[in-house]
Amino acid sequence: MTLWIAGEWLETEEKISVSNKYTGELLGQVSVASREHVHQAVMAGQRAMAEHPLTVQERYQILSSVSEQLAAQVDELGMGIAQEAGKPFAEARTEVLRAVQTFRVAAEEAKRIQGEMVPLSSPHAQGRLAFTLRVPIGVVCAISPFNFPLNLVAHKVAPAIAAGNAFVLKPATYTPLTALALMRIFEAAGLPKGYGNLVIGSGGTVGEYLLQEEGFSFYTFTGSPAVGRHLRESVGLRQSTLELGSNSAIVVHGDADLDLAADRCAKTAFNNAGQVCISVQRIYVQEQVYEDFMTRFKAAVNALKVGNPTDPDTQVGPMISEAEAQRAEAWVKEAEAAGAQLVTGGERRGAVLTPTILTDAAPSCRVCSEEAFAPVVVVNPYTTLTEAIAKVNDSKYGLQSGVFTASIDVMLKCAKEIRVGGVHINETSGFRADEMPYGGVKDSGIGREGPKYAIEEMTESKLVVIHNQV
To answer: Cα–Cα–Cα angle for 396, 91, 261, nearest 5°?
Structure first.
């Protein structure tokens, strides 16, 4: 397995081993990039953009071809994700299908990039016509996480190409094999040399090399708030989109469809073993329906099948590593020691932590206040809607939330007053359509993903003023 720089596949002596997250079996080894490799990748991107600016039609054709090739390899790529990420095969297959859509939407949006007319009404501007163009911003640095090794990469590199930019991708070291497969698809799709570059290595080394490279014009990163903050401090005035996680909250109001709420919360609290930025982590249920909801929710959670992610029937697989499962287990025990009640789950076998429900957890517990990124959810009651909204907003994060209710008044009040990037009514925080604007507020990050919105951030507005001298 190799790096991809300037259209060439390169091997290095230093390697990283990639394992099956459920069995521990070795899946392969990948080469680790040096500082010079990172520099070469940036230079290749700049050179490609200068020597061969991509036409709109070329961008469309390349991205469409990638989408078609992904569609032809859904099962193969899905199984690869199941093995290297530990994601249940059904979810992994869905991720591939979503990536197909992400590239398809990006291809279409490449044809819709437009500026605007600027009305000039000032007396001294008479005889002039003004308009803006959106032009490529430059080489994009894309740093992606392990939990969606294909589709979150797609959300970074597809808009970059659609906007006419080159990119340098650093995937998570837990899951680089899927990124390698995607780069081979890009190569087969005819992406000109230098427009796509792949470097692999840890955040502490290769990640730092990327931040120190002055040739990047834009950074797109998904990961922890601490690293996101470090990135912002390191890149100075250069632009970035940062998706930094959450501890997403759900409100189940007294007039809600409890069967729907319990089913959706169970499914989206434990997707990918809870390792999803918009995973349901906190649920607030109005007290008069609290017991009824808990009966339904516990039954739905206990019905989830836990096991080998390559089994098509598995719904909850392992976490990304045993160390992460141990960390989550410690957080659960910490909450119990502080007075929380364990309703179900909490059992760990290696990297597998069974789906866990806690109640009566104090807001200061890490399972409430931090991003658990694990199959752990906390359910607490509330009395008034104002109280529920205050509990949801009592967080340093603000990515997405969900509200279950039959009341228009409740819907509108929550939509206006819950401080997050996206509010979903009669749906959980875990919903995402790949074409929609996606991002958060507070420590959940800055900027928006979704091809149309990412393209806008990855282009610059250039003003053109024409003076008619006649």
So the answer is: 55
Tokens representing residue 17 in the block: 């081993």
Beta strand 196-198 with 218-222: parallel, antiparallel or unpaired?
A: unpaired
Q: How confident is the model at residue 468 (pLDDT cuts 50, 70, 90)?
A: confident
Helices (H), 236-381: 258-269, 290-302, 322-337, 366-369
Q: What is the C-alpha separation between 32 and 52, in angstroms, rounded?
A: 29
| Selected catalytic residue, list 95, 109, 213, 243 | 243
Q: Is 8 a catalytic residue?
A: no
List all residues 6 or more positions away from 470 whose beta carbon is below 8 Å from its beta carbon: none
pLDDT at 344: 98
Q: Is 243 a catalytic residue?
A: yes
Model's pTM, two decimal places? 0.97
The structural domains of the chain, ordered by start, are 3-245+443-466 (3.40.605.10), 249-434 (3.40.309.10)
The closest alpha carbon to 431, from 247, 208, 316, 267, belongs to: 267
Q: Do residues 48 and 20 lie in contact, with contact meaning Cβ atoms separated by under 8 Å?
A: no
Report the C-alpha gap between 113 and 441 in whole angstroms: 26
Helix ranges, 125-243 (H): 151-162, 176-188, 208-212, 225-235
Contacts of 310 (CB under 8 A, 6+ apart): 22, 79, 82, 83, 89
Q: What is the DSSP letter of 271?
A: G
Helix, strand, or coil here: 395? Answer: coil
pLDDT tens for residues 405-444? 999 999 999 999 999 999 999 999 999 999 999 999 999 9
Nearest 5 degrees, angle CA 408-CA 409-CA 414? 100
* C-alpha distances out from residue 330 to 269, 337, 339, 341, Å: 19, 10, 14, 15
Give every CB contact of residue 403 below 8 A, 6+ residues apart in sequence: 250, 251, 253, 410, 411, 414, 418, 423, 424, 425, 426
Give the closest residue to 435 by CA, choosing from 173, 100, 22, 18.
Answer: 100
Cβ 319 vs Cβ 86: under 8 Å? yes
- What is the distance between the alpha carbons of residues 191 and 173, in angstroms, rounded to a whole number? 24
Q: What is the pLDDT of residues 332-370, one digit of tens each?
A: 999 999 999 999 999 999 999 999 999 999 999 999 999
Query: Among the options 141, 265, 277, 414, which is catalytic?
Result: 277
**For 97, what's the count of Cα atoms within 13 Å in the CB-facing half-sphere?**
8
Pairing of strands 239-243, 249-252: unpaired
- Quick one: pLDDT at residue 16? 96
Structure tokens at 120: 């000039």
Checking DSSP bridges between strand 356-359 and strand 376-382, what pairing results, if any? parallel
Q: SS3 of 176, please?
A: helix
pLDDT at 469 over 90: no
* Per-residue pLDDT tens over the stretch 18-40: 999 999 999 999 999 999 999 99
